[in-house]
Design a protein that fits this description.
By secondary structure, the chain is an alpha+beta fold. It folds into two domains: 130 residues, Diaminopimelate Epimerase, Chain A, domain 1, CATH 3.10.310.10; 117 residues, Diaminopimelate Epimerase, Chain A, domain 1. Helices cover 16% and strands 42% of the residues. It is built from four helices and 18 strands. The protein has an 18-stranded mixed β-sheet that branches. Helix 3 links the parallel strand 11 and strand 12. The longest helix has 13 residues. The protein is globular and about 50 Å long. The N and C termini lie close together (7 Å).
Length: 278
């Protein structure tokens, strides 16, 4: 199997061009390639595929083999690969995902390769039914208490096509993400599990985020998570609707626009290509 290793703000995946390659068992392949000691090493596997309704289709698998609906950092790299490798020849494209069809704007650097991508992440989904989350399906979850190990967290939940639970903390660098992340991810309130964002507010326009990703553990960045943080900050009145988010792997620009859509802008980087028996 031929592959390309790419990352968006340190959120790294193994990408396979399924216009040319075939992957019959992506769940097993994702586990194998993600292993950082015996595989290529990544947060998961992303397939770049033909689509009948968009320019390309993305399927994304976590390092544990589970499939997720969307990946904000991953889709930027899909757009870069598609342009740089000649699958598409335009700088505004559409991508089919498990969260719907998204529109992406591509920005080239000095060598006419894509360096930055702006993604219309769609409109955030805010009710319990949409997240999904147990309880009254029509209600939003904003600043609600959740008890974990005798600690009460105030949570705000948002779906960006995949579920997110946002928690604001005083000092994110010293916070015990590895302790609380998996407990919240697998809490009974979330029938499909959830991603968890721990966020420190620096100013009304600037935050620092660490993410515990569903099926992958802590990652250096999460684009859908950063988008959910932008929404959660505005819903709680602690940030503006346009913010700069500092993640462990780099910065992302987020804007919850007046049209109701969430726009994310960030880097996309190709690291290397190779071939692996799977």
């Amino acid at each position: 199997m031929k592959f390309t290793k790419m990352h968006g703000a340190g959120n790294d995946y193994v990408y396979v061009n399924c216009f040319e390659e075939r992957v019959d068992n992506p769940e097993q392949v994702a586990v194998k390639v993600s292993n950082r000691n015996f595989g290529i090493g990544s947060d998961g596997l992303i397939l770049i595929m033909p689509s009948e309704v968009a320019d390309v289709r993305m399927r994304m698998f976590n390092s544990d083999g589970s499939e997720s609906e969307m990946c904000g950092n991953g889709i930027r790299c899909v757009a870069k690969y598609a342009f740089d490798h000649g699958i598409v020849g335009k700088k505004e494209i559409t991508a089919e995902t498990g969260a719907g069809i998204l529109t992406l704007q591509l920005f080239t650097g000095d060598r006419n390769t894509i360096e930055k991508v702006r993604v219309n992440m769609g409109k955030p989904r805010l009710t319990r039914a949409e997240i999904p989350m147990l309880g009254d399906g029509e209600k939003q979850v904003v600043n609600e208490p959740l008890n974990i190990l005798h600690t009460t967290f105030l949570i705000t939940c948002v779906s960006m096509g995949n579920p997110h639970c946002v928690i604001f903390v005083d000092d994110v660098d010293s916070f015990q993400v590895e302790k609380y992340g998996p407990l919240i991810e697998n809490h009974d309130l979330f029938p499909r599990r959830t991603n968890v964002e721990f966020v420190q507010i620096i100013s009304p326009t600037e935050v620092r985020q660490r993410t515990w990703e569903r099926g992958a553990g802590e990652t250096l960045a999460c684009g859908t998570g950063a988008s959910a943080v932008c929404v959660a900050g505005a819903l709680n009145g602690v940030t503006e609707k346009k913010i700069l988010n500092h993640l462990s792997g780099g910065d992302l620009e987020l804007e919850w626009s007046d049209d109701g859509y969430l726009y994310m802008t960030g880097p996309a980087v190709e690291v290397f290509s190779g071939e692996m028996a799977v």
